[in-house]
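To fix ideas, we reproduce below a protein record of this kind.
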Amino acid sequence: MNGTNPPQPPPQAPAPMDPYRSAPPAPQPQGLDGKAIAGMVLGIVATVLCCLPAVGPVCGTIAIVMFAKFNTAYHASGQTLGGRGMAIAGLVTGIIGAAIGLIYTIYWVVAGVILGTATSGMLWK
């Protein structure tokens, strides 16, 4: 050999992209969270039973708290925790049930006070 390096082969082009290759799979949900289910159930109960004094506001408030706890866990899991739709449904129905239930509760308290003061003098005459 004459002391020179052998010629280098030309660089190869990168492999062509396969147009039929699919995208990488999306992260799978970790499963349903109990807070989402509980929030949705309590929100539905608050909406259905909002005409009973104090039931709607109590159940609705708990449903809103359950959404807040679920939302914290959802973001801590990297948004892979399942049940986000149920949690949002619980939030919406909880707000509706709490608002209507609060109106009913105020109505019944005011009606009770008015009837109580109106009839209190009648019993002792």
